[in-house]
Design goal:
Blueprint: H1 2-43, E1 45-50, H2 58-73, E2 78-83, H3 94-99, E3 105-106, H4 110-114, H5 132-140, H6 142-149, E4 156-171, E5 185-188, H7 192-200, E6 204-207, H8 213-219, E7 224-228, H9 229-234, E8 243-259, H10 260-265, H11 268-301, E9 307-310, H12 313-334, H13 336-347
Parallel strand pairs: 1-2, 1-3, 5-6, 5-7, 8-9
Antiparallel strand pairs: 3-8, 4-7, 4-8
């Protein structure tokens, strides 16, 4: 019996020694490596930034610039992970994804915010902006501040306004006078204001999301659409549209929004770094949107399958008169204070 116990004890000691000698160093290194990785992850702050357009558009390029600026200014403590082209969320789901914390930042078009906060419809009014100076005055002035204040009730914080540029009309027939719209089907961003705009032309508005636009035009489901030059060019909409009118009748812009609860938990120095990065990215965006639309207009003019007409002052006046009922229809829901600011803006011209 004693002999058996001695043998068993010897075997156990040998096994323990083998483990310690043969594997001890590897286990120690593995544990050290695991701790280092976990420590790095716990210090890094991840911001998921979801958007719906291509990387080579003004918004897409600006998001990438912002992500790099944040990385540089925080010395890698904050990583902005960019998800373009609706790969993570579409316009339909991105706001709810932001509110429930699935993503931390989005940059929705004004139309998507106006569906939940009526005051934002003010930025969709046709011919609201007559010049680039108007755009800058609104985004950087009282109107912009008033709109950002409305986001707080939905656990969102507005960081900046970004531009894609003035919108133009495209179709498979020339669009010169308001009568040219009659009976034509136009794809729009789902929006009550944009629907009213096209109905004022006696056209048929059909709401859909951006990712469906090319196929809708190619299949003939719609006859035309409105968009920035950069979107028409980068999405190759000129391949499925024969005519474009340079009308500058509307403006496609975005509100860069962060989850308010997430923002409040960030250390003050990180908030400051993100704010500075956003300011620099926004200045870059403003310049990029103007220059890109100008250069890509020249590229579109070289395309043989689309004819481009620049609206005259007389044609513009006729379009403005046709869409005036849109202002009257939405004045009450937008609010007296904002409408007064718009009247002041127009009187300064």
């Amino acid at each position: 019996m004693k002999s058996f116990l001695s043998i068993a004890l010897f075997v156990m000691i040998a096994l323990v020694s083998a483990v310690m000698i043969g594997f001890g160093t590897d286990l120690s290194m593995a544990k050290l490596g695991y701790d280092e990785v976990q420590e790095g992850l716990s210090e890094r702050i991840i911001i998921k930034f979801s958007h719906v357009v291509a990387e080579n558009t003004p918004k897409g390029l600006t998001v990438e610039r912002f992500a790099q600026l944040v990385k540089d200014k925080t010395h890698g403590r904050v990583e902005v992970q960019v998800f373009p082209n609706s790969v993570l969320h579409s316009e339909k789901t991105e706001i709810s994804a932001l509110q429930n914390g699935e993503v931390q930042m989005i940059a929705p078009a004004f139309s998507h915010l106006s569906s939940m906060i009526p005051a934002w419809a003010v930025l969709e009014l046709p011919y609201l902006f007559r010049t680039q100076e108007d755009v800058e005055n609104v985004f950087n002035g009282e109107i912009g501040q008033m709109l950002f204040s409305t986001l707080e009730q939905s656990d969102m914080k507005g960081l900046a306004f970004w531009s894609s540029g003035f919108k133009q009309m495209t179709a498979n027939r020339p669009l010169i006078t308001p009568d040219d719209f009659v009976g034509q089907r136009f794809r729009i961003i789902p929006s009550a204001v944009l629907e009213a705009q096209f109905r004022s032309f006696q056209a048929i508005p059909i709401g859909s999301y951006f990712g469906d636009l090319y196929s809708m035009l190619a299949s003939g489901k719609v006859d035309g659409e409105e968009n920035t030059i950069s979107n028409v060019y980068t999405k190759r909409l000129y391949q499925v549209q024969k005519y474009m009118t340079i009308s500058d009748h509307g403006f496609l812009g975005y509100a860069v929004v962060i989850n308010q609860s997430f923002w409040n938990k960030l250390p003050p120095d990180i908030q400051q770094a993100i704010t500075e990065a956003m300011q620099e990215a926004t200045a870059y965006n403003n310049q990029l949107a103007v220059s890109m639309n100008a250069s890509q207009l020249r590229m579109l003019q070289e395309q043989k399958n689309i004819q481009i007409h620049v609206q005259t002052e007389e044609e513009r006046a006729a379009w403005i008169q046709a869409v005036q009922p849109v202002y009257d229809k939405f004045a009450d829901s937008i609010g007296a204070d904002l409408m007064e600011k718009i009247r002041e803006l127009h009187q300064r011209r």
